[in-house]
Amino acid sequence: MRYPTIYRPNETNFNSLGIGVLSDALSCEVTEVLNGEYEMRMTYPCDGANYDALVLRGLIRSKTAPNKSAQVFRIYDITTPLN
């Protein structure tokens, strides 16, 4: 999986491409925090193909590292730039 994939908030089957691939993402950084949990921070343009699909509680599936399997992340915060 090269790019993160967006899924609906109630999705349970992650064997598909869900709503779509977030290939327009400007950056996507996954870090490991306390207790082995992962957190993802992504920058996605307002004019990106799947911008409207990025909603609170939505799910994003992404790799945590090149040699590791993909993890599912819940969107819990969406911010917009000041400019």
In the predicted model, the low-confidence regions spanning at least 5 consecutive residues are: none
Number of helices: 0
Number of strands: 6
What's the story with the biggest beta sheet?
Answer: 4 strands, antiparallel
Across the major sheet, the strand order is: 2-1-5-6
Percentage of β-strand residues: 25-35%
The secondary-structure class comes to mainly beta
Shape: globular
Compute the separation of the termini in Å: 32 Å
Q: Brief description of this entry?
A:
A hairpin with a 6-residue loop joins strand 5 (59-63) and strand 6. This protein has a 4-stranded antiparallel beta sheet, with no helix packed on it. The protein starts with a strand and ends in a 9-residue tail after the last strand.
